[in-house]
Amino acid sequence: MLALTGKEVAHELNIEPHQPGYGALGPPTLPRCRTPPRALSLHATDAASAGQFTEVGWGQGSKGAMTSRFAVLVVRPAGKQSLAAAQAAGGGRSQWDGVLPASTVLVEWPAGNEAPTDYWISNLPPDTPVADLLRWAKMRRCSNTTTANSSTARAWTTSRVPHLARLAPLRHPRHRRQAFLTLRRLDPKVHTSA
Question: What pTM does this model have?
Answer without folding.
Answer: 0.66
